[in-house]
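pasting for ref. prot 1 ->
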Amino acid sequence: MRFLSHEDPETRALVYIPLVVRRRLDECGVRVSLSQWQQLPLALRGAVALMATGTDAPDVFRAALAWMLTATVAPPAMLEVRVVPTPWQDPIPPSSLADALREAGINPDVWGTMDTDTRFGLLHALKHRARHPDDFLAILRAVYPQRS
């Protein structure tokens, strides 16, 4: 399993959905609520987290997740499949992220050196910055400790 360095102990214990799992869910166009996630037995949450870092095709990941949810979540949960943009896969950062990086004193060109999970984590933290203002800076500190 892979976790981003800023993720808290509850996320590492799979109480909450790790960012690598969120990224994979988005890439596969699947929405899983926190309630659904927490109803999955811990062993299955671990399996999903491992699958999220694998190379299975999206339809394989969706099928395995659908089986897990229908077999264990009460009432049986159906997967909500949707098309989701994947800006973390783009070669240049979205302008809102580039602006936030500049505000933090970081050249947006570093986007090209970041791995996919770090890119996703930054975008996720930026999106939720109003509710969780420290997450964005925590990721930046983890990636660029000299900026702390």
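and prot 2 ->
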Amino acid sequence: MQQTEFPFLLPQGYLDSEGNTHQEGMMRLATAYDEIAPMRDPRVQRNPGYLVIILLARTIVKLGTLEQINTKVIEGLFSGDLVYLQDFYQRINKNGHSRLRVACPQIPKMWWTVKKAYPVKWEGPQLNASSDNVAVEKIELVHQGISKLGRFSG
């Protein structure tokens, strides 16, 4: 049976009006109607960028303990979470799964498949315009399996 709903964990989480953070959620695959119907929405006609807000509101079926997911919730997401969800939407709807291909800098020129991985920790660089240091990000994942795909050239 095909998987139609996919769990996710927001990097920052939605902060509701009571100060509660909601990070764990579930997104379903989009239907053709999900992508067509918003085109008639006046908000999309005025601003085509609003399409993603409606698409996410239609396809996110769970976010923490919120009773309802609507466009106001999606509008209230932190920018990093919105980018994460746009990428997640693309991955599950184009690939039918949420897996990512990853390369580890400690083991160069190797590709890995990580199954059902969720970020649990992220560290970003201290950006300094007057520095020539390389910006390095670290992400810690929990997963349900990892396998080596092989070497790549480059």
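Residues 5-95 form one domain.
The chain has five helices and eight strands.
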